[in-house]
Amino acid sequence: MAQPRVLILGAPGAGKGTQSSKIASEFDVEHVTTGDALRANKEMDISEMDTEYDTPREYMDQGELVPDEVVNAIVDEALSQADGFVLDGYPRNPEQAEELEEMTDLDVVLSLDVGEEELVHRLTGRRLDPETGEIYHVEYNPPEDPEVKERLEQREDDTEETVKERLRVYRENTKPVIDHYDEQGVLERVDGEQAPDEVWEDVKATIEDAA
Ligand code: AMP
User: Fold this and answer.
1) Which of 18, 54, 110, 151 has the highest CB neighbour number within 10 Å of its CB?
2) 57, 155, 189, 204: which is the annotated catalytic residue?
3) What CATH number belongs to 5-29+83-209?
4) Confidence (pTM)
5) What CA–CA distance (Å, rounded) separates 177 from 161?
6) Mutate to test the pocket of ligand 1, among 79, 88, 92 (most ligand atoms within 8 A of CB)
7) pLDDT tens digit string along 27-48?
8) Contact 4, 107 (CB under 8 A)
9) Rounded CA gap, 82 and 115, in Å?
10) Closest C-alpha among 175, 185, 168 to residue 9
11) How many whole angstroms from its chain centre is CA 123?
12) Is the pLDDT of residue 52 over 70?
């Protein structure tokens, strides 16, 4: 497989972003992530789409899903420009999964499995360095440099209240998508509670085996 088409699934905080970046550089594929794309376009005017709110920000800050119409267009555009890719953060409900089926075939479907208690701990402790984009955790991975520590920020949707809502939305909308791929017999599960390097070994081996 020259350039694999990889779908990575899992709850918020399961480590999809971290593992996707590694996949993108190891296998020389595009990292297509709806979360980052939406964060970069939070103030986009979507009022013409007959949606409840006028910008993605209002959905994201509450932990709700941005309407399918907006997200489908982002993914369709990104995938049409990529030979191989790792798709991260999409599909998040069965309707998006159907859309994706129309857009492309997949070579590997991965699920990063992490228990809910650990997810809450990871997300609420996550901090971002606004200058470098580097991600830290207050307990698991604090920065050594006091200057960096001083400027760390929390993502607006990583507060406890919004995290709980995001996990509820995950259970209700995204979990059925994972179950669907599982029932089709194409889902490769990786234990996402291992150390990041161990998760990466399993992820890499799973993609190589599918080649
Ligand atoms: P993430 O960084 O993947 O956790 O995404 C952050 C937020 O962006 C989510 O809580 C949603 O509000 C929005 N979002 C990301 N991907 C999607 C998607 N596929 N469908 C709808 N909303 C999404």
Assistant:
1) 110
2) 155
3) 3.40.50.300
4) 0.93
5) 24
6) 92
7) 999 999 999 999 999 999 999 8
8) yes
9) 33
10) 175
11) 13
12) yes
